[in-house]
């Protein structure tokens, strides 16, 4: 199952989404028999790549946040000791 196919949420996959939706409208019955399967596979790969990029960006952001938090805690500990 894929996430909702909204173009504004998946700019990397916009072309594939449009092609996939067009395939579904052009082949309303054949889509059940594998007509759009290749596009679905491409779409899934694109979503995986997109998710990997988001995961990497979130990880980098969390590392920066942890560093700031540790610096803040260290600063507060030094203030308490004075």
TrEMBL record:
Record keywords: Disulfide bond, Mitochondrion
Major localisation: mitochondrion
InterPro entries xref list: Cyt_c_biogenesis_Cmc1-like
Protein localization: Mitochondrion
Residues making up the signal peptide according to the UniProt record: none
GO annotations of cellular component type: mitochondrion
Keyword Coiled coil listed: no
A UniProt-annotated Pfam family: Cmc1
Similarity comment text for this entry: Belongs to the CMC family.
PANTHER family reported for this sequence: COX ASSEMBLY MITOCHONDRIAL PROTEIN (PTHR22977), COX ASSEMBLY MITOCHONDRIAL PROTEIN 2 HOMOLOG (PTHR22977:SF1)
Protein name: COX assembly mitochondrial protein
